[in-house]
Specification:
The chain is mostly helical. Helix content is 59%, strand content 0%.
Length: 535
């Protein structure tokens, strides 16, 4: 048999930390051969023979999220379809509560489908193509849904429309431009300038212009925004086979970790976040660097930074890969590659700024996300914990604690980035892996953290070898992040009873990745744990 069934290493005990490398001759995105379809492959065989259970369970979950999202998600203030119609009840009162319940049912079923698919991946019963086709089917209903668990796409459209009406998106917020674009922006961001780079402003402005030409149809505007963001998803998928081989991982595991992940399906695709563009451009840039196309690599990562500034953290690591491909003393190579990299960066970033007709006003606007105060950011969370612990001793506002801990968090973040940069000084795939670690540190130690921020580093780290235990932690973290915000986009991070229940369910799902009967209710299931063969 071919594909990922070619190697059958000794099975470690469930929960083992052992990692097993993919055989060198294993085809990428391949599926186990099926004699019944040999010579006359049907559609299912061409899609890698995806397991029908997870496939249709996840698709049904997506349909529930789509239907529930029209009433409980980030809905339009004036919906041209539901408002003043017989279906309008779905957006208000008990109808909205029912829609929200339907969305949470969809989340639970999606989590169940993801874990079931993960078991198949760990047991090497499916290949990468099956994982990919399953994830794509799960995403299809998301393409036409309202924004799920967020209202950010409305901000994107409004920020793109601002320059069309003569406003500087880096100087004013959407409230400066009353109308249909502004009406749907979350109140928290109404007076906030755009914190995104010139490339994203250019893209948002272009699509806002198209939306206006189509009669300012916000439904078309949101669907189009999501499809544009999915270009980044396509780039990420395109690079994963070769980049995973370079980083030592297994394609089917990498695809399951990041593409089929409910955070990707529901938050990033369903939420239409611009982080998709960032991770897509970043992954192509990393692959270009490893393939010695260094100018292109710097240009692509610069474009990622021109979408969202956090991607700029990867640039010094891309330079190190260039250094590793030169000859001569290390410091001299660093100067040569660094000088060339800065020249490429300035050229590309200037071109983006000129094309978008904006200046550097986005740099001060980068502080806007710091207005978000939640404990997903490690420094902010520690500050809130410290304030609560000392509340009976010191009466004060939590803000001084937050300010101090954020400064400390920033110092730690810089130290982690610098340490990983120095350890990656030989370049090669290790520099890419450490860039992923640095991006993950930025997401967790920045003043503000949102669930989809962790995709910056995870998109790269998904392609490295994983232990079975590490995948269990991934399941727990991913599913907990899914419920950090309510379907409407409001935070759920301080609803402690809700979070405790969700954390227990996420822990149960993580345990069930390796044990189909995590509660030990079935003697048969207890005797047959899922083989823990990750890579």
């Amino acid at each position: 048999m071919t594909g990922e069934m070619t190697a059958q290493p000794t099975r470690p005990a469930a929960g083992s930390e052992t990692t097993l490398p993919e055989p060198a001759d294993a085809p990428v995105l391949s599926a186990p051969a099926d004699p019944a379809t040999a010579g006359r492959p049907g559609l299912r065989a061409r899609l890698g023979n995806p397991p029908p259970g997870p496939l249709w369970l996840g698709f049904g979950a997506s349909v529930l999220l789509l239907v529930g999202g029209t009433g409980g998600g980030g809905t339009l203030i004036h919906d041209p379809i539901l408002t003043n119609s017989a279906l309008g009840f779905w957006r208000y009162g008990h109808g909205r509560e029912l829609a929200t319940a339907l969305m949470y049912l969809g989340v639970v079923l999606m989590a169940w489908a993801w874990v079931k698919l993960g078991r198949e991946v760990l047991a090497r019963r499916v290949g990468g193509r099956a994982v990919l086709s399953t994830a794509v089917l799960w995403m299809l209903p998301m393409l036409v849904s309202p924004p799920l668990f967020t209202r950010d796409p409305y901000s994107y459209l409004a920020q793109g429309a601002l320059p069309l009406f003569g406003f500087d998106p880096y100087a004013v917020g959407p409230e400066a431009m009353p109308g249909v674009f502004t009406d749907n922006v979350h109140y928290f961001w109404q007076d906030t300038p755009a914190p995104y780079g010139p490339l994203f402003i250019l893209v948002a402005k272009a699509w806002a212009w198209v939306t206006i030409q189509l009669g300012s149809n916000m439904i078309v505007g949101i669907i189009g925004t999501r499809l544009i963001m999915c270009i980044g998803l396509a780039l990420l998928i395109w690079t994963m086979p070769e980049l995973t081989r370079r980083l030592g991982g297994r394609p089917s595991v990498a695809l399951w970790v990041v593409i089929a992940n409910p955070v990707m399906v529901i938050h990033l695709v369903g939420g239409a976040h611009n982080d998709l563009l960032l991770v897509g451009l970043l992954s192509v840039g990393c692959l270009a660097a490893l393939n010695r196309r260094h100018v292109l690599a710097i240009a692509l990562v610069t474009l990622a930074m021109a979408t969202k500034a956090s991607a700029g953290v990867a640039l010094p690591f891309i330079v190190l890969i260039w250094v590793g491909h030169l000859e001569g003393p290390w410091f001299r190579r660093l100067v040569r590659a660094g000088a060339a990299g800065v020249a490429v960066f300035l050229a590309v970033f200037t071109a983006c700024s000129l094309a978008a007709q904006v200046g550097l006003g986005w740099l001060p606007a980068l502080s806007a996300p710091s207005m978000i105060v939640n404990w997903l950011s490690i420094p902010t969370g520690l500050a809130q914990l410290l304030h609560t612990a000392l509340a009976g001793v010191v009466t004060s506002s939590p803000q001084p604690y937050i300010n101090v801990l954020r400064v400390i968090g920033g110092i730690v973040m810089v130290a982690i980035i610098a340490w990983n940069w120095w350890k990656a000084r030989e370049g090669g795939p290790d520099a890419v892996r450490r860039a992923g670690i640095a991006l993950l540190a930025v997401a967790l130690l920045s003043p503000a953290t949102l669930p989809w921020y962790l995709s910056w580093g995870l998109a790269i780290l998904a392609m490295v070898p994983w232990s079975a235990r590490g995948l269990q932690w991934l399941v727990f973290g991913s599913l907990f992040l899914m419920v950090a915000y309510y379907p409407s986009g409001e935070t759920a991070l301080y609803n402690w009873p809700f979070l405790i229940v969700c954390a227990l369910l996420a822990a149960l799902a993580a345990r069930s990745l390796l044990r189909p009967d995590p509660l030990g209710l079935s003697r048969t299931a207890r005797r047959k744990p899922v083989p823990a063969r990750a890579a």
